[in-house]
């Protein structure tokens, strides 16, 4: 179905008053009918039982994690499957799967949503592989992945995506990511949103959630299945290995993982379990489900050290004098990671903004759910980086639904505090930003209020592609033309560079005249 | 046979509401658990509050930490009617059960879970019980039985039992647990799917 005809169908359904009746899991529809309705309105799924596609994650030099989940009826609470289903897998050096290098079988249990996680080891470094699953006499689509290199590396390209509210747009950004020539993808969180329907389809939203807010494992499974009903997301998973962190909406808005009341503890466990079931996450070994450990450090040869942070599981409440966004154990681990940092680019996958952000000069912080709500710990960590001598520090961030470029200083209020790194906050895949009018008004105000803020652009959606060499780190802001169009074309809005050994970023002269609502230089 | 060691909180140090440094059979991952005597009083569950019929002298509680976590590693039996061969034939089911509770209308609670892993250490099954909310307890202090059963996936070799006490507020972590049990049962193979 073309984008135009899908939009026409949405409009026609809305005009006929049929959309609320037809959209998935509305009252009176069976899961099968709901799926049919969803597909009629643009969602689609791979052939059963591999409806949700395939994925790979956590690439290392000799290993990668392969994922799939059997869901013949993706939006149903109960899958029409045996309690245990045997699943085969094959890894090959070619897309025709002729040069098989590894194969095996595993089991998919109903207790884990019939998900499959296979850590394949014994692979070669810096090598592209293809893989496939088989089950119930069917074969999945063929996925493509890649292992990390070892030793000297001349370049790495990777992409980062974040904030993909299903109702706010189609995943043209993921379509773009699937087509990028990148080594891996980082997802920075808000992969799903937990809330119920938003309404307003098609006038304000291109589509909607399938039901009410998620609380149980069945709810969160259904929500993940809905999101994977966008083919472009499945294509991006199948095209590249992913590294993963999460933000709040995988559970609930602005939550603190250390909240202890029983209903929340139950909800969080349900969300974490469903996240694990639906993601190519490599189990950390010593962690115990349903509490996966997701922070980790990975190397891409001698060129890049990627540190994946978990800013939700262990955080305290905001705005406490001794509050923590990392938690005691992760903070200790992070500081020791900094102490052991090799000569390389040091990239942190950071779900929520690290840099200080005041709403107006001398005013209060805009959002203390981000690191601004954990001032002492931020200062401690950034001072530790500075005193340790770790250089070539780049933070990639999501959450804000707009693009920012910031200089990172241990003390953001002290202009003499040294620049020790750069934070690139990426556009969202679809999740709505502020209005163009708000951005136009507040871009310059935020610029004036935050001397370390170099760039702000909030009128677009997309993802970032990073191109890294031993001498330069470049961030290309890829944007889509229209998030209401599933096949919206991708262009590069602008590019920022960081030179090796020289803290601070600069915009590429070729794109410096591109639209933005704040630019310091 | 119960595969959980000291699932009844009867072994090792304890007896008061103060946290202990070690718990027989369990690894303390976080916080500090207490093994509280039913006769302690002070609002803690007593022998006459809701709880297991045979409850012994003590139960687990979360001590004074906001979050207390205990982990127990379980090696599945290699031989016998529920041994590796039976598991690999799809003919073994597990049952996880425990009495979980809390204090009056407070939302402190405890969550019990078991995760099965294959020989490579990859999770292949998971069951989670609780926490029992204050609403489910009708705001009554006590412990209430929760149980789940499922098939042990082919290839499973180990299990990990996780017990997490969480505090909603105050200083005492009033998640309570007792009579924790993980058992295996040989069953006719009816659940194995086609490849």
Keywords:
heterodimer; A: Immunoglobulin-like; Purple Acid Phosphatase, chain A, domain 2; 10-stranded mixed sheet; 8-stranded mixed sheet; disordered N terminus; B: 195 residues; mainly beta; Jelly Rolls; 5-stranded antiparallel sheet; elongated; disordered C terminus
Task: Characterise this structure.
The complex is a heterodimer of chains A (521) and B (195). In chain A, α8 (328-339) packs parallel to α9. With 521 residues, chain A is of the alpha+beta class. In chain A, the strands form 3 sheets. A 10-stranded mixed β-sheet of chain A has the order 5-2-1-11-10-9-19-20-21-22. Chain A has an 8-stranded mixed β-sheet with strand order 12-13-14-15-17-16-18-23. Chain A has helices at 3-15, 19-22, 31-40, 172-179, 217-227, 231-239, 262-278, 328-339, 375-388, 436-449, and strands at residues 54-57, 64-69, 84-92, 100-109, 115-120, 128-135, 138-139, 143-146, 156-161, 184-187, 241-244, 296-300, 304-308, 345-350, 393-397, 403-408, 421-425, 453-457, 461-468, 472-480, 490-499, 505-507, 518-519. By secondary structure, chain B is mainly beta. Chain B has one domain: Jelly Rolls (Sandwich).
Q: Based on the structure, what is the oligomeric state of the protein chains?
A: heterodimer
Number of domains of chain B: 1
Q: What is the CATH-assigned architecture of chain B?
A: Sandwich
CATH homologous superfamily label of the largest domain in chain A: Alkaline phosphatase D (PhoD)
- Give the CATH class of the largest domain in chain A: Alpha Beta
Low-confidence stretches of chain B: 191-195
- The count of strands of chain A amounts to 23
Give me the CATH fold name of chain B. Answer: Jelly Rolls
| Mean pLDDT across residues of chain B | 96
User: Total number of helical segments of chain A?
Assistant: 10
CATH architectural category of the largest domain in chain A: 4-Layer Sandwich
Region (Disordered) (chain A): 498-521
EC number (chain A): 3.1.3.1
GO molecular function (chain A): alkaline phosphatase activity
InterPro entries (chain A): Metallo-depent_PP-like, PhoD-like_MPP, PhoD-like_sf, PhoD_N, Phospholipid_Metab_Enz, TAT_signal, TAT_signal_bac_arc
